[in-house]
Amino acid sequence: MLRASFAGSPYVGVFARATDHVLIVRPDADDDVVDAMTEELGVPAVRTTVGGSGTVGALAVGNENGILVTSQATEREKEAIESAAGVPVGELAGQINAAGNIVLANDYGAYVHPDLSDAAVESVEDALEVPVERGDLADVQTVGTAAVATDEGALCHPKSREPELEAVEAHLDVRADIGTVNYGAPLVGSGLVCNAAGYVAGEDTTGPELSRIEDALGYLE
Known about the structure:
The chain is of the alpha/beta class.
């Protein structure tokens, strides 16, 4: 477990994205923070923008099969990520394409923004090689901000309804629970970076919140 911030912001999930292959992180992040994150997550880091933006956690998502980025990403950015991760990088089609914000994925499935077009859903399926289901969580359509998932569990917005949690469980093949980060913030995907090895929470996350994270994502087993 690690608590961190980027330039004073505890919303680490906005500025970084981890898979079991790589940590994608904004290029101007402090060296000490990046070093601590790579040690906690057990993967190499690639410092890059995505679509010219440092909000790389909001614009990229991935699993063991590939990484999906906004269609605004440049060839140089995609090549840098692909080289570091060792898996293909695809683009999310359509107008709604902040991939990290709107796709919740693990190695078993992807749960996505309810208004994604068929073409966008197909691009998720192609890049991540998993079945895709549309839905929302607690009336939040940006499901990538409302939840995080590993292959062991999912942590979701605290107001997620039981049928929504059941949909996440069925589609991602993991147990889903609710929680918060950063002293009560409900958009857990914005304040948490995780993979199979560990997790990085926003620096304002409390002890009870950390316990809930560890239980929900399977780190206590």
